[in-house]
Amino acid sequence: MLTLTSPVETWAHRWPAGPKLALLALATTGLLLLSAPVLLAGAALATAGLYMTAGRGFARTGARLLWPLWPFVLVVGLWHLWTADLTGGAAILLRMLTAVALANFVTMTTRLSDMLAVFQGLARPLSPLLPPRRLALAFALVIRFIPVMLQRMAQIEASWRARSPRPPRWRVLVPGVLAALDDADRVAEALRARGGAG
């Protein structure tokens, strides 16, 4: 649970965490500044090409990590169909999918310890108020847990569909929250076993 680094070794695994996180910040900022669907589609294709440079197996794993976003895609798509704003809807969906895919790429190719070191360095000016290691660990765990929880929700929904013909909808919220609490408890135990966050 403490790591989502892909076991498939790629060229991106050899890049330091700092430059990768900086490029991710620049790329997501650029996506927010773009509004034309054509440009955003180009960014999405470039992201897909980035995954393909790491191999088909790596790209398939990256595509699976995007699958849990389908409820958001459905809601945003239906809303913009209803409001007849197809251009705006396409821009939002392309921006969201590309940003998450880029974040997943960094997550899959960066060790948690390397991310922790970067965040710890950035948090050093706040040391009089908060221990940098704790703040860095919090940032790193948030980045790691987003795809984990999306994947867990997809598993819960799949389990529901295997047992009931009705759509899951709100019924998966309670199991999802319980799974999140269980995962948090396991991570806390793992951290305590390793000496804590301090």
UniProtKB/TrEMBL annotation:
<dbReference type="InterPro" id="IPR003339">
    <property type="entry name" value="ABC/ECF_trnsptr_transmembrane"/>
</dbReference>
<protein>
    <submittedName>
        <fullName>Energy-coupling factor transporter transmembrane protein EcfT</fullName>
    </submittedName>
</protein>
<feature type="transmembrane region" description="Helical">
    <location>
        <begin position="88"/>
        <end position="106"/>
    </location>
</feature>
<feature type="transmembrane region" description="Helical">
    <location>
        <begin position="65"/>
        <end position="82"/>
    </location>
</feature>
<keyword id="KW-0472">Membrane</keyword>
<keyword id="KW-0812">Transmembrane</keyword>
<feature type="transmembrane region" description="Helical">
    <location>
        <begin position="20"/>
        <end position="53"/>
    </location>
</feature>
<dbReference type="Pfam" id="PF02361">
    <property type="entry name" value="CbiQ"/>
</dbReference>
<comment type="similarity">
    <text>Belongs to the CbiQ family.</text>
</comment>
<keyword id="KW-1133">Transmembrane helix</keyword>
